[in-house]
Design a protein that fits this description.
Blueprint (H helix, E strand, L loop, with lengths): L3 H4 L1 E5 L8 H10 L4 E7 L11 H4 L10 E6 L17 E4 L7 H10 L3 E6 L17 E5 L14 H14 L5 E5 L7 H6 L4 E4 L11 H18 L2
Parallel strand pairs: 1-2, 1-8, 2-3, 3-4, 4-5, 5-6, 6-7, 7-8
């Protein structure tokens, strides 16, 4: 049996916690040594719905013990950079469709001390990475369309994980592949076996009203290990 703690990381979605018990649930994430707290920032333009602003996000800084993993689903995300409290290990990714100058935005964030990535929606081709890939720490693959939680998996997204892994390997790069969208117990093994390095855990895989969070984390990790056993 593989040890998933060393090979596949978990980024727990703040958007999916029980907001009436947020402190208690984040303490469980700390106890279970979850790698990242995943922060979805949505402005209602690029993707439907709205989420929390930086005044709310920053108040969780002293509760969660690990780094933050920001997914910016906003038009011209550079307008928000100065509002974030960036700490060592924090990650930020943006959609190329949202940036007038993607490379400039990536470099600006790196200068602020963040690890940087690009987020690809299901229909966005891997080829958009051609001239920025060397400047990335990770790529976030959306396996659902950006917006509301709880959507069904886009089936061809699993093949895209494998294609991205081959794309990165062909360039002899060490770049993390994050997977976000319908990351549930049924889908996790194939996401991992095809090359997923970090899994975003949300309402379909970890946060349930009828199951204790600690139990969900154990089941989640067991599914990761099944995927690692299937890797070739």
């Amino acid at each position: 049996m593989n040890d998933s703690s060393d090979k596949v990381k978990i980024s727990a979605s703040l958007m999916c916690v029980d907001w009436l018990s947020a402190r208690e649930e984040i303490e469980v994430l700390n106890q279970e040594k979850i790698d990242y707290l995943h922060i979805d920032v949505i402005d209602g333009k690029y993707a439907p719905d709205f989420t929390m602003g930086t005044s709310i996000i920053n108040c969780f800084r002293d509760i969660f013990e690990g780094p933050f993993d920001h997914h910016l689903m906003v038009e011209e995300p550079s307008n928000l950079f100065d509002t974030f409290e960036i700490r060592p290990g924090d990650r930020f990714c943006m959609h190329p469709e949202c940036c007038r100058n993607l490379h400039r935005d990536l470099i600006e964030l790196r200068k602020k001390g963040a690890e940087v990535g690009v987020a690809l929606s299901p229909a966005t081709p891997i080829s958009v990475l051609d001239y920025v890939i060397e400047d990335l720490d990770f790529v976030l693959l959306m396996t659902v369309n950006p917006g509301f939680k709880g959507q069904a998996l886009v089936p061809q997204a699993i093949t895209k994980i494998k294609d991205l892994k081959e794309y990165i390997s062909a360039r002899n790069l060490e770049i993390d592949i994050s997977v976000d969208g319908n990351v549930n117990i049924e889908n996790i093994p194939s996401m991992v076996s095809n090359g997923g390095d970090t899994l975003i855990s949300g309402s379909s895989g970890m946060f349930f009203k009828d199951r204790p969070l600690k139990e969900s984390i154990k089941i989640f990790r067991d599914a990761i290990n099944r995927g690692l056993d299937e890797r070739t």
